[in-house]
Amino acid sequence: MIAALWSRLRLAYGLLAAQLVFRRLGRRATQPVARLGSDYGGWPCHVELLPASAAAFCVGAGEDVSFDVLLNSRYGARVWCIDPTPRAVEHVRSLLEGRAIQEYELRGFDPTRFRLLSYALWSADGSLRLYEPSDRRHVSHSAVNLQKTSAYIVVEARRLESLLAEAGL
Questions:
Q1: Confidence (pLDDT) at 14
Q2: Quick one: residue 148, left, alpha or beta (phi over 0 = left, psi -120 to 50 = alpha)?
């Protein structure tokens, strides 16, 4: 019962809100948090709350999909890896084609449960300008031109609802 409540609160309102509710109820969260992935590309995750056959939309692949890969290989999740930037697309394709195998722990990895979506996640479906970073060594582009650069690429953008529908979820 507590795990189900924790899971629902966490999904609906985020980790901080769930912790606040549990503190108010006088209970502490019992689910352990594990860090999945590299120091750069990893994220903390309540792995015991991952349901069997979980579906994960991982947004912003860049050049490190270690979190995404572990969700797939270690926990059997179906992963949709979302990033339209050219270097990110190339990086994920190299993984799926077996060219990036030295970079990841692939024991248990199932490429049939790992899909690249080369879209930007945005508030509307359509085309979107992504401005290139000022430092060419960086991979991330900006829809709001945070670095005030003039060079940009035009990519397809999708709302989360559109991506979920496309995935049949």
A1: 57
A2: left
